[in-house]
Amino acid sequence: ETVAAAGPLPPGLAELRGRGVTVVPHGVKLSLGGAEPVDPARVAHLAGVAALVDAPLVSEHIAFVRAGGLEAGHLLPLPRSREAVAAVVANVRRAQAELPVPIALEPIAALFDWPDDELDEAAFLTEILDATGALLLLDVANVHANARNRGADPLALLDRLPLDRVAYVHVAGGAEQGGFYHDTHTDPVPAEVLDLVRELCARRRPPALLLERDGHYPPATELRGELDALAAAAGFPVVT
Questions:
Q1: Over the stretch 1-33, which tens digit does the pLDDT of each residue have?
Q2: CA 147, CA 10: separation in Å to the nearest integer?
Q3: At what angle do helices 191-203 and 220-234 cross, to 10 degrees?
Q4: Three-state SS across 15-74?
Q5: Which domain of life is it from (predicted)?
Q6: What's the Cα-to-Cα distance from 27 to each of 2, 12, 46, 153, rounded to whole Å?
Q7: Domain boundaries, position 193
Q8: Strand partners, 94
Q9: Is residue 240 over pLDDT 90?
Q10: Does 31 map to a domain?
């Protein structure tokens, strides 16, 4: 959302495109899980940025960020209900009608579940993907965070997801705070997340993986080491 659809691209992004690096616009404000229809202007902006960077796809979260005219400023989890499935499907279809490329949907890390859940996470995601034909953006750091905070088995979730629909994978670090594991994007990737990457790739290796780091950037040598560890866990050639 911070890139102007009319251009020009920020210098760093323009340099990456000049080197042939694939860029995927990643939204956080469509509120696909909201009860209200998605804002056409926000969809048009995402479509414009996709065209500007010649993206093969775009991605967004299965979450809501606004309701009743109020902005949460954060990705909020949905109740895993049939009603929520219908709301997400309707909004994804509205977005798909205006986007020039496919959309991949990312399940978020959540610190709580709603008491009126009707479906588990795998069934909830699969119903949405089947109804929309959308791709899956699988964040293994979110899988780890949710399993750890719920006392669940992350491999049990992996085994029930439609891994053939994965467009690419997010990987990130986190930290324990207040008795919960938080997906911070500002800490090193823990060994448990790299283990999940290995388990995922043993089942079906995704086309690509992306390391998310939004702050507290380490020295370049450490960051390259993290990228190499991720590549090795996934069975790809090391980056450096």
A1: 889 999 999 999 999 999 999 999 999 999 999
A2: 37
A3: 30
A4: HHHHCCCCCCCECCCCCCCCCCCCCHHHHHHHHHHHHHCCCCCEEEEECEEEECCEEEEE
A5: Bacteria
A6: 10, 19, 7, 29
A7: 138-235
A8: none
A9: no
A10: yes
> Is residue 81 predicted with pLDDT exceeding 80?
yes
What residues does 169 pair with on adjacent strands? 138, 209
Tokens found for residue 72? 């949460």
Q: Are residues 1 and 94 in the same domain?
A: yes
Both tokens assigned to 85? 């499935």
Count structural domains, the chain: 2
Q: State which of 133, 167, 201 marks the end of a domain.
A: 133
For 89-128, how does the pLDDT look when each residue is reduced to its tens digit (9 = 90+)? Answer: 999 999 999 999 999 999 999 999 999 899 999 999 999 9
**Structure tokens given for 21:** 């690096």
